């Protein structure tokens, strides 16, 4: 399977959000990656349902929504209503993770679980067959434009081995500091989806940058 590219909307120009969404529509990116932050689970606040609904109104590709929030269970249906097709929660934020995964699927979305840089891959062993996506954070969550943590490549290898060992169909996604210098190593290690924010939107030609990542 060819790897997917999911530009992170957090890095787009919010004064021209429709323009940037339509630009991604016209290119070869596969998903829109949307980071939701609550100022509690991570030390930053991004945006809520009104902005997400505005993105969904113009987006012609799936919305891959990454919740960096406490108590995500109470908002699952709201994110479905706002247009999420994939909903990823953090292992560190979910006391009853199986229940959360089941609720996401019951709402009609694909379910993902993310782990922070310090969290070992082994915590996903008991859910790997239940989820559609596993997200390796390659920076500490909360802010865009951070430096890539190289240990993420090794974690991708570990996760790929776990997925094959258990016969899971989960995709491996990597989020944080992804660029042309590390994308090839991540794909070689087993990554299926690369999230790229500032590397795409701060480039002179975002769609050409996406094409370069797709060609690796």
Q: Short summary of the structure?
A:
This protein has 216 residues and is α/β, with parallel strands linked by helices. It has 8 helices and 8 strands. It has an 8-stranded parallel β-sheet.
Per DSSP, what share of the residues sits in E-state strands of 2 or more residues?
A: 15-25%
Mean pLDDT figure: 96
Q: What is the CATH homologous superfamily assignment?
A: Aldolase class I
Q: For the terminal residues, how far apart are their CA atoms?
A: 13 Å
Number of strands: 8
Widest β-sheet, arrangement of strands: 1-8-7-6-5-4-3-2
Largest sheet: 8 strands, parallel
Shape verdict: globular
Q: What would you note in describing this structure?
A:
- By secondary structure, the protein is α/β, with parallel strands linked by helices.
- The protein has one domain (4-215): Alpha-Beta Barrel (TIM Barrel).
- It contains eight helices and eight strands; from the N terminus they run βαβαβαβαββαβαβαα.
- It has helices at residues 17-26, 49-58, 76-81, 97-106, 151-166, 183-189, 198-201, 206-215; strands at 4-7, 32-37, 63-68, 84-90, 110-115, 133-137, 171-175, 193-196.
- An eight-stranded parallel β-sheet has the order 1-8-7-6-5-4-3-2.
- It is globular and about 40 Å long.
- The relative contact order is 0.17.
- The mean pLDDT is 96.
